[in-house]
Amino acid sequence: MMKFERYEWLAIAIMISLFIFVGFIQGWSVSLVILNMCIISAIMTMGVNISWGYAGVINFGVMGFLAMGGLAAVLVSYPPITESWQAGGRGLGISFALLVVLVIAVMYINKTVIQKRNRYILNSLIIFFGILIIRHFYLNATHNIEDVNPAIAGFLGGLGLPIIFSWIVGGLFAAGVAFVIGKVALGLRSDYLAIVTLGISEIVVSVLKHEEWLSRGVKNVIGLKRPVPYEIDLQNADWFINLITYLNSSKLNNIIDVSDRQQLLNNLIIDGSGIFVKLSYAILFLIVMLIIFYFANKAQLSPWGRMMRAIRDNETAANAMGKDVVKQHLIIFVIGAAIVGVAGAMLVTLDGLFTPSGYRPLRFTFIIWIMVIVGGSGNNLGAIFGGFVIWFSWIEAAPLTTFIINQLTVGLEPTNALKIHLLDSVPYFRYLFMGLILLLILRYRPKGIIPEKVRHS
Amino acid sequence: MIDFLNSLIVLLNFIIIPGISYGSQLALGALGVTFVYAILRFANFAHGEIMSFGAMITILFTWFFQSQNIGLGILPTALLALPVGIIATIILCIISDKFVFQYYRYQKSVPVVLAMVSIGVMFVINAIIRIIIGTETIKFSDGQKFIMKAKQFKVMTGLNEGLALKSSQVITILITILLLTFTFWFLQKTKTGKSMRAFSDNEDLALLSGINPDRVVFTTWIIVGVLACVAGTLYGLDKSYKPIIYLNLVLPIFASAIVGGIGSPFGAVVGGYVIAFSEIMVTYAYKKFFVYLLPSSIEPTGLVQLLSTDYKFAVSFSILVIVLLIRPSGIFKGRVL
Q: How many domains, in total, are found in chain B?
């Protein structure tokens, strides 16, 4: 099915050799940490690439969809907190039911009252008083929930299921939010749409930050269960010790002294357990990435993908050919957001904690967009490549800058104020690199490093 | 009667004065965004960072003047450093245009590409600012802090409620009036201003009638530089300077520009005040206000707050979305300067 060109094989080879290189220089543990984040970034990039590259629908709400995925990870995997449910479950239920009634009432009014002015007045009255009543129940309930053992709980908890399910649920959550946003905003011109999606993603994050009954807000949720074994269990498992002994048998046999050998074995087991955990994550993530990659490519090559390209390249013509542009835009926006949501759940799974205040647009929206542009919009392999390369340079920018600054200021005293200041601001140089990479790519290779293939089928 | 006056003072102190000064800062920012949109026809995501850059240069020179013991007495030293900041910001704008934006303008790229490019510029300026001045919060206002303290007002009028008037608020309002008057006078009365309006209205026609596009763009960047630097400095003077805030400020600024009708300078100013007032009014707790107005039997028990202050940010966006749905071209029909 998929056939890679020679330069595409080259790109894959570059990606793999980057990690082998880091593995030898900085250690395999570091290499695997970067690899895991690279895979997650690649999935986010594919999500954005599907809406932007296939259909030209701009999505600056990446941060919001990631946060929804993260919320899903919490709600699926955290054990339920019964006290909280008892304290406020009923109040929440009532306010939710009232909300449904309110929505139905508004819809009914919209249908029956024909005169525009009456409709506005009736609607605003009903919404105003409805919200007043709902607020009463809602605030009481949330207040009660947040009072339950605030130091460790103070929220509803989740379902207590394995966290791996949350990857799908995260996708669904993000898709739901995307559906609402798309219904509201997709008619807008692309630069308006960019601003609106950016703004709505801020709203989503601020809701997660401040609705403590739902997500614990700025108090963060920690200690989410892992889908892979814990280091400490591995270190005590017989099969793992045997495996390490077997892998390092030649090294161990060289040491004659028994206690020295035991010492070395213990160190190897501790190192090995960390690497094993990261490797299991990497394999899980890689499977997800390859599944998404497979289906994304399939979709792109299908008649549906062709229609999307037609809509992207000439909306009016596609419309004239009888394609429902608005509907297709909505579909592809939702699909793209769902993939980003999956990545968001995976991100929280990897970290084991959910920190709503950590979602910032610079890091979670704009960097992802740089990945898409640099990799090559409209090409899935390009998206993966962009995700890998940009995340890799984002991480490795700091050591590189330190090296460059040290080289440039080699003649200066170590106490020189300029040198100290520059070395202190090393973390900020990565923003400079990102900006320059984006500007250079947009100028000299506007279609990205691995551009979209022009198909004549 | 006294109660009524007291409640009025509460409104004035907590809503109207902060609203006007925050609104002025947003208005100046939104005016800059609108200028770029009307003449260069793209959404400039780097505008917040340009504001931040101007404020940073002003702060650096404020420190320099302070170390030389040059000051303005009761006025903040920053006002003295502001012209230097303005010149630096203009230079920054023109450099970024020459090296980055110009190419795409000549290529006639679509607006989205230019918006992406402006994100690249945003990253670069962002990095430069952080490398030079770090990420710490900086307070750089000196001179007399209050024109009128709450206590003075209470003693003066004998009312229960105090009315505080910060000098930074008064300076913000005065400079905004000055700058807005000048900008609108420039657009309406001068030849360059008229050519800018013509260019914004219909580019081809303007070119045919002999307007030099490079000159129009050059003037635009000068105006944008002035507006951005002043807006950034005033915001920093009023609250405090923190690089990350300016990135967050971009969103309300865009909201103001779009709500007012993007491309319409008057709309941008109105939009700034609309956004500022709604942010403050929706998140203010009106309890104190009602306590004065209503008889004690029906006094409210809660805070009488529509939304908690945490959602300040969300308010501007909800307004943006509502306006875009009901009236996509903004309050004042946009797209013409």
A: 1
Would residue B25 count as lying in a domain? yes
* Confidence (pLDDT) at B337: 46
Phi, psi torsion values for B8, nearest 5 degrees: -65, -40
Confidence of residue A46 (pLDDT cuts 50, 70, 90): very high
Pair B80, B65: CB distance under 8 Å: yes
Q: Is residue B333 part of a domain?
A: no
Dihedral angle over CA of B5, B7, B12, B18, nearest 10: 160
Least confident of A108-122, A146-160, A185-199: A146-160
When pLDDT is cut at 50, 70 and 90, the band that residue B95 belongs to is: very high
A431 contacts B111? CB cut-off 8 A: no
Two tokens, residue A11: 């790109």
- A122-131, A197-206, B248-257: range with lowest mean pLDDT: A122-131
Q: What share of chain A is helix, strand, coil (3-state, %, to 5)?
A: 80, 0, 20
Nearest CA in chain A to B111: A191
Select the CATH number that applies to the domain covering A13-80+157-444 from these four: 3.30.200, 1.10.3470, 3.40.50, 1.10.15: 1.10.3470
Confidence tier at B335 by pLDDT (50, 70, 90): low
Q: Is pLDDT of B317 > 80?
A: yes
Determine the structural domain holding residue B108 and report its residue range: 2-326
What does the alpha-carbon distance between residue B59 and residue A259 come to, in Å, rounded to a whole number?
Answer: 63
Report the SS3 class of residue B138: strand
Yes or no, beta carbons of A196 and B324 under 8 Å apart: yes
Window 255-314 of B: residues touching A by CB (8 A cutoff) are 255, 258, 308, 310-311, 313-314
Each residue's pLDDT tens digit, A190-203: 878 888 899 889 88
Q: Give the residue extent of every domain in chain A.
A: 13-80+157-444, 81-156
Q: Return d(Cα A176, Cα A38) in angstroms, integer.
A: 26
- Give the percent of chain A with pLDDT over 70: 99
Q: Which residues contact B289 (CB under 8 A, 6 or more apart)?
A: B7, B10, B11, B304
| B337 falls within a domain | no
User: What backbone torsions phi and psi does residue B308 show, to the nearest 5 degrees?
Assistant: -70, 155
In a domain, B187, yes or no: yes
How large is the average pLDDT for residues A343-359? 92
Structural contact between residues B165 and B148, judged by C-beta atoms closer than 8 angstroms: yes
Residue percentage of chain B with pLDDT more than 70? 97
pTM for the full predicted model: 0.91
Structure tokens at A390: 């940009």
- DSSP letters, B126-188, are HHHHHHHH-SS-B----S--EEE-HHHHHHHH--SS---EEHHHHHHHHHHHHHHHHHHHHHH
Which of A195, A203, A363 has the most B C-beta neighbours within 10 Å, making it the best mutation to test the interface with B?
A: A195
Q: Which candidate, A87, A88, A212, places its Cα nearest to that of A151?
A: A212
Residue B270, pLDDT > 90, answer yes
Does the beta carbon of B46 lie under 8 angstroms from any beta carbon of chain A?
no
Contact between A184 and B325 using a beta-carbon 8 Å cutoff: yes
Q: What is the CATH number of the domain that holds B226?
A: 1.10.3470
Give ipTM to 2 decimals: 0.90
With beta carbons less than 8 A apart as the criterion, state whether A174 and A67 touch.
Answer: no
Task: For residue range B96-116, list pLDDT tens digits in order.
Answer: 999 999 999 999 888 889 999
Contact across the interface for B131 and A432, Cβ inside 8 Å: yes
Q: What are the residues of chain A with a beta carbon less than 8 Å away from any beta carbon of chain B?
A: 58, 184-185, 188, 190-192, 194-196, 198-200, 202-203, 206-207, 209-210, 361-362, 366, 369-370, 373, 422, 424-425, 428-432, 434-436, 438-439, 442-443, 446
Q: What's the rounded Cα separation, in Å, for the pair A132 and A138?
A: 10
Half-sphere exposure of A77 (CA within 13 A, CB side): 28
